[in-house]
Design a protein that fits this description.
Layout (H helix, E strand, L loop, with lengths): L6 H11 L4 H52 L5 H4 L31 E7 L5 E9 L23 E4 L19 E5 L2
Antiparallel strand pairs: 1-2, 1-3, 2-4
Length: 187
Amino acid sequence: MVKINTKGINKMHKLYKKGFTLIELMVVIAIIGILTGIILVSLDSARAKSRDGKRISDISQIGLALELYFEQNKHYPATTVVFDNTCSPTPTETCFVGVFIPSLLKDPKGDLYKYATFIRSGGTTISNFHLGAKLEQVNPGKYDANVDWDSSVADAKGAWSSGFNGKGTNCTGLDVSSSNCYDVKGQ
């Protein structure tokens, strides 16, 4: 009779039992994938809130700089002056960027903010402004400074140039049920 040595086979069988099955590995990979997806969605929301915070901060800074400009010049700057890096001062016009605000502020996604100016009937100087930014998160009404002004409609007291609707989606006024436009107005 031939005797078979089973010690080696038993040892190898025990080593094989210590590993994971293919199903167990696939379940772990699926769980890791689901957790990664949840984390990425949460990060995207946090990034959007961060960009909205920068937009609101920029609008506040530009608004304050516009008021300082008004104090010195007795009128608000034209649209081209507010968003121009290459201003050359004239005897009647002071540069806005570089004097009243250190650098040109842009939306975190690279767009310019909305800026409308108002000239009273019979007047020649800009006597008011409307400044806005499209937020990624809906409900800018929770911020105290948000005015929801509509400078796109005609006014009997004067005329708005490049007006926009601060009550509407994307600052256009097409859908006022879900506004995501944060806007401020001058005096």
